[in-house]
Amino acid sequence: MDFLRQVAVDLHALRTEAKRKYPVVKEAVDRALEVLPLLQQQYAALVRTEKLAPGPGHSFFQSESVLRPFLLTCNHTNASHKILVLALSSIQRLVSWDAIEPASVGSILRVLQIQAEKTAYTDVQVKLLQTVLQLMTLAYEATNRKKGAAVARTGQRQLENELVGNEDMVMQAVWICVHLHESSGSASSVVGNTAAMTIRQLVSLAFSQVDSSPAAKRVGVLLFQDLCFISREESGVWLKRTAVSPMSAALAVELLETIVASHKGLFRLDVEFTTVLKQQMVPLMQSVLEMSCNDKHGGSAGSGITGPTNTSITSSSTNGAAGPFFPLLARGMRLASTLLCHFADCLVGECASILHALLEIIATGTYTMDVSKGPQSLSNSSPSLSKSPRALSKSPPDSKYNAANAIANFKEAKSFLAHSNLSIAGASNASGSTGGSINFVTWPVLLSLEVLNRVCQEPDVVAAMVSYPDGVLVAITRTTSSVIMTSPPSDFKPQGPDATALRSGLELLNEQETPVLQQFYMAVRVAASCQCNMAASVFELSRSTANEKVCEKLAKACVAVVAPAVVKSMNCVMRHCREVDLVTMSLKAYHVLATIASRLRANMQGQTARNTWRKPMDEVVLTCLRVLCGFSFPLPDGIRGNTKASISTTGSGSSGSSDTVGESGADDSESCLVTIS
């Protein structure tokens, strides 16, 4: 009875406000007030007969006549602020009491959409979002409660299915949230923040019911597809009226990452979801990386490695300031990490394309989509054609971008490194009394390295990349190795009071402006971690298999790819770095490599395989043990300290020069470089 009494109070208040300006609303209120006493009498009769007061959701409360005056009020585009707040509060009360007929849901969404387009009042916009969420939660939670239970009437079952799987209803709800999010002007505003939280919950509700009916599944597929279009700043096929802003594109990418991470089994097993993911992931990632790295919304990101000039620390606004659009960049990199970690084994060509894009960003600091081929062609072509656009335009077809020429490409990018007065002045606060220039790394490069580091932590992903064509594994190991080996000694130690505050850039989801650039030490540290994680993943794979063919494949990857890059990288770290965590990381990497080689050699039972891999594996083991001994014990005969010469070792496990930069070598007292003669 209290609920009906409060509804009566709302109707009388609405009648007072509407009696002069809105006669149609006044007439609807009068009819509702005529119905209300009848409802109160029925309520009293139910209490007497059933000995229990009917609660929320009882069909007795669902009256179209009571709802109609509030809908008519919101239907007026010129309604006053006071009457809108009153009407929306009453609609919220009816929805929360589950006093809405299913047939009225579409009418409610229609008037909410009208007000979302017209009103500029902040509190009204917040109430619109709250009402949308209440309405959708009511529909989906009702389906959850009744899911699996017997439904007596077929018509009632069809009505519930239409309510949850209704494309138009979900489209209107999502459109209202997206429209208010982009029209708020700032994601940190009250309306922008509320809209973002609301659309996250709506998407979660929609995907929680994709297995309840074919209609609900279709809603999930269409919603995912349109989020992909919004992420590329295109008008959706389903959300046709949506005008997308850069802020909405970043939110759409975040939603896609959440969906894929939460429902990875659905995208792996369901044919429709697998197909739409395969069609969309490469064009989506290429477009997002190009927009964010090349700073479509704020200038040019420039080189991959740059000095800390005043324009290097940038804003993500669209005012033309230099720097990447960080919210979109961070979310795009998180999505790339999720796709690679969960689908590297089943979407080979697509994941290879994403990896090549990340490698291009590391080597050049930017990414440009190949317009001549088009984004979709890469996902449909063989992996051997999934090279980065820069490689396709500058290299012969059979070359390996960022593989054989990885170090040369990275050195070319580092030619942009600036040691200007601005860089010294800009670093003075961070470097304290050092007075020297500090090299900084741009966010696209650092985040790309962090994605590769996460990928290399997954043994299953590394196992999949072993079988990738086009030298993807080679490209990753050599490119990350080149980050270390082309860096001057000053980049191997953090400088300044804030140097110890280490945090992954992939976790900076609340940043609306580009954070301060990180010292290049962070890039060296992440690259070294990537190398060590690669070795650790191969170690886990070698421990979990005794199959001779698999062991041979891992041996080839270890000897020809992982061992040379890791040994040279860790040698460079041991030479220049005095940070405990990096030195410990290097020592563990040597130990892991030696263990891998020993185990794989022991698992090879066939004489041919043993003859083929015995010597290379022995060389890997001996190389690692010699370095460990040189670090741990007094140097025996044949091993001497040398601060100027580069490391040279014998055997295929560490062939080639270290390619270290020949600038300002470490002092004799600080060097732990060894040369094995």
UniProtKB/TrEMBL annotation:
Mon2/Sec7/BIG1-like dimerisation and cyclophilin-binding domain location: 3-137
Composition bias, Low complexity: 373-396, 646-664
Pfam families assigned: DCB
Region feature (Disordered): 373-398, 644-677
Listed InterPro entries: DCB_dom
Top-level taxon in the UniProt lineage: Eukaryota
Protein name: Mon2/Sec7/BIG1-like dimerisation and cyclophilin-binding domain-containing protein
Organism: Peronospora matthiolae
